[in-house]
Amino acid sequence: EAAAYADVLGLGGLDAIYAATTASSDHLHFGLGGSARGLCKAAWSQPVDLSFVRSCSPNTVLLAAGSLDLGALSPPLRLLSSLRPPPAGYVRLRSLVGACRGAATTAQKVENVLAALGTQVAMALSLEKGPIPKPELLLRIAVRDAERFAPMLRHVEEAVAQRGLEWKTRELDAHRIRFVQVPLAEADLQLSPCYVLHDGALWIASDTAALVRMLRQTEAELAQAADMQQLLQHAAKASGVVHVRSARAAALGWRSLAGLLRAQMNERRDELGVGSEVVPDEEQVAAALGTTTLTWRVDERGVTVANHGPLRLGTLWTGFAALVDDVLQRASGRVF
């Protein structure tokens, strides 16, 4: 019975663990046996598609993308349900089935939704320029069959409307952006979560401005950036990536934060013995942070994880020590 579960889940024995580090990257491999068509491998084994980058804002500071073939989960899930569950898990399984029935969800409906989805998911977080950088979230979910997926969107809209929020439509060329306005009185802000079906995918954003920018974008400015070219090299044959553009975040946000730090340190100059001169400028911070790319690959051999860039365990300690040393050097000429 254990062998049957292992085959369905795609998880066999752990036969190897390999770790290595270089001057610029870390690598970790877990050798896991089991069927490549098993539950835990089938959904994540395809290569990641980074065409999403062409639609992202040049002010993107965090990007994540990966293969997620939910439709591939249906066969192993059906096989898993046919196996005799262990007594300890039977109560939990029965509770889950009851919850699904309470939500008027059937297995066939779930399979229809999963089959309508594509094999790729991606998201991007950007800091758009302003007196205070404005964070915007953009999410892309590949869709195979928009007609089969449409009932799910209507169901979500109905659920949101029952909470007293009104759906509105913004026409942009041939696209219909659906959005709701959510006021945040405590923060004196108003969000407008929205979605649109476009180019074989469901696009979701935290604000309509993000979707409008994506739909109107004619030049793939972000895709032409030097760090994006490095990302393409690191992500070759990978199942997923997380790309942190720390240098860009510093260029966009450090100026405002540094201004506050300099003002505070100048006010406490007599107490601290140093002032704003010890606060690094945005160029120094950007050069120190750079960009970091985390990739993972899932295949019949197991899972391989690689980390490229300064945000690694060893370099974090080195960078912290260098920062402390720089601050002490700047303060060395001061009389305490």
Outline the structure in words:
Helix 9 crosses helix 11 (282-289). Strand 13 and strand 14 form a beta hairpin. The relative contact order is 0.14. With 336 residues, this protein is of the alpha+beta class. It has helices spanning 2-9, 39-42, 74-82, 87-102, 107-116, 146-161, 208-216, 226-234, 246-267, 269-272, 282-289, 313-331; strands at residues 14-21, 25-32, 60-67, 117-128, 134-143, 168-172, 175-179, 182-184, 189-191, 194-198, 201-205, 240-244, 292-299, 302-308. The model is unreliable at 86-104 (pLDDT under 50). Helices cover 40% and strands 27% of the residues. A twelve-stranded antiparallel sheet has the order 1-2-14-13-12-3-4-5-11-10-7-6. The termini are far apart. The chain is globular. The longest helix has 22 residues, at 246-267.
Overall form: globular
Helix share bin: 25-40%
Low-confidence stretches: 86-104
The number of E-state strands comes to 14
- String of helices and strands: HEEHEHHHEEHEEEEEEHHEHHHEEH
Structural class of the helix and strand makeup?
Answer: alpha+beta
Rg over C-alpha atoms, rounded to the nearest angstrom: 24 Å
The main sheet comes to: 12 strands, antiparallel
Question: Major sheet: order of its strands?
Answer: 1-2-14-13-12-3-4-5-11-10-7-6
Give the averaged pLDDT, no decimals. 78
Kindly estimate the percentage of residues that lie in beta strands according to DSSP. Answer: 25-35%
Count of helix runs:
12
Ends apart, CA distance between termini = 72 Å
